[in-house]
Amino acid sequence: MTISTAPLPRRRAVAVKVGGVTVGGDAPVVVQSMTNTDTADIDATVRQVADLARAGSELVRITVDRDESAAAVPKIRERLDRLGLDVPLIGDFHYIGHKLLADHPACAEALAKYRINPGNVGFKAKRDLQFGAIIETAIRNDRPVRIGVNWGSLDQELLTHLMDENQAAGFPQTAAEVMREAIVRSALLSAERAEEIGLPRSKIILSAKVSAVQELIAVYAELARRSDHALHLGLTEAGMGTKGIVASSAAMGILLQQGIGDTVRVSLTPEPGGDRTREVQVAQELLQVMGFRAFLPVVAACPGCGRTTSTVFQELARKIQDQIRDEMPVWRTRYPGVEALKVAVMGCIVNGPGESKHADIGISLPGTGETPSAPVYIDGEKAVTLRGPAIAEDFRALVLDYIEKRFGTAGGRDAAE
């Protein structure tokens, strides 16, 4: 009997170019993030976009909610270009996007994509007119559009219409089922209207965000079944800390395993004064642990038990993990392929040697009462045994030496210098 570890075949979506990044088609799943600065504050927004891009965000969305923020967008783009950061910027528009794009053509040109919400792009008689105005601006500027439905701002007319239909039919569906249908239909009808106006399918990305895990899975499964549009995944209002991480990973992990999703964002609520790049790290780690992408070397570390009363292995694992993340912007150029590296830092003899042999380079530190020596395994073979007070620093030096020997190339070094 063969046990498969592969995900379901990737749903083949229409490819969409967002600046220099491809979403859908044969492209890998793309990591996206969003700033939480006032876009009109050019300095703060440039700093945060730069931080997100350097952390690995391949697309960055910014809020464009008023004239001052729209006027700032081309200046932000110019500043980023001067820094050598070509990360595509996505404009997030609500309520008056049609007016801001019309009044600030430089903003429309500086953005690589527009994100609009069909639930608040316009109301009643103005909805079609204002939606059409944004789509026409996208066509003139040759820009893609993400039609992003959110259950917190769902088109109430559509929802009411579907509820009335359900009532007239004798309530064959629950209220939750009608809500899900309204979300899916809002996205599909809006995409259909955009194509009627003239925006090609290769310029349309859809999303349908909710904040409940099972609801998100159900909505995207249905959206994927009924369309071939590129899909942006995200659990909206995921929450703070471990709750947000677990909820987002559970929902998107299941969808990705089913072959659904072309770009992802982990919408974490940051701690007060917290680092916005955390959402990028979580998205990368989700894609990497599932085997879809490789962003940085993996450090496998022992969780600890009564055999590992020393904190040496914990401190060493943290130092190596931190060093890898800090150095990756340089290592990507200097050491092509280094993101595939696997390092093991284990705490005792029980699983230490075995885990270390499975890694490219690993160390088995002495547990409580064990002989104060630490064998190091390289490419599955025992290479050296470290002893003394400098075991941690000696192993870090061995890791760096391994990276240089395996991944260092004359071309990579020259490009970095």
Automatic annotation (TrEMBL):
Stretches assigned to the IspG TIM-barrel domain: 15-284
Q: How is the cofactor bound?
A: Binds 1 [4Fe-4S] cluster.
SUPFAM superfamilies referenced in this protein's UniProt entry, alphabetically: Nitrite and sulphite reductase 4Fe-4S domain-like
Q: Gene3D superfamilies per the record?
A: Dihydropteroate synthase-like, Sulfite Reductase Hemoprotein, domain 1
**Which reactions does this protein catalyse?**
(2E)-4-hydroxy-3-methylbut-2-enyl diphosphate + oxidized [flavodoxin] + H2O + 2 H(+) = 2-C-methyl-D-erythritol 2,4-cyclic diphosphate + reduced [flavodoxin]
Q: Which residues cross the membrane?
A: none
Example GO biological process term? Answer: isopentenyl diphosphate biosynthetic process, methylerythritol 4-phosphate pathway
Q: Name the keywords, alphabetized.
A: 4Fe-4S, Iron, Iron-sulfur, Isoprene biosynthesis, Metal-binding, Oxidoreductase
Named in its record, the pathway it takes part in is: Isoprenoid biosynthesis; isopentenyl diphosphate biosynthesis via DXP pathway; isopentenyl diphosphate from 1-deoxy-D-xylulose 5-phosphate: step 5/6
Q: Where does [4Fe-4S] cluster bind?
A: 302, 305, 348, 355
Every IspG C-terminal domain range:
299-398
The coenzyme or cofactor needed here is:
[4Fe-4S] cluster
Q: What class of enzyme is it?
A: oxidoreductase
Question: Pfam families, alphabetically?
Answer: GcpE, GcpE_C
Supply the InterPro entries for this chain: Dihydropteroate_synth-like_sf, IspG_bac, IspG_bac-typ, IspG_C, IspG_TIM, NO2/SO3_Rdtase_4Fe4S_sf
Q: Give the EC number(s) under which this enzyme is classified.
A: 1.17.7.3
The molecular function GO annotations come to: 4 iron, 4 sulfur cluster binding; 4-hydroxy-3-methylbut-2-en-1-yl diphosphate synthase activity (ferredoxin); 4-hydroxy-3-methylbut-2-enyl-diphosphate synthase activity (flavodoxin); iron ion binding
Record function comment? Converts 2C-methyl-D-erythritol 2,4-cyclodiphosphate (ME-2,4cPP) into 1-hydroxy-2-methyl-2-(E)-butenyl 4-diphosphate.
Task: Give the family this protein belongs to, as stated in its UniProt record.
Answer: Belongs to the IspG family.
Name of the protein described by the UniProt record? 4-hydroxy-3-methylbut-2-en-1-yl diphosphate synthase (flavodoxin)
Q: Which organism is it from?
A: Methylobrevis albus
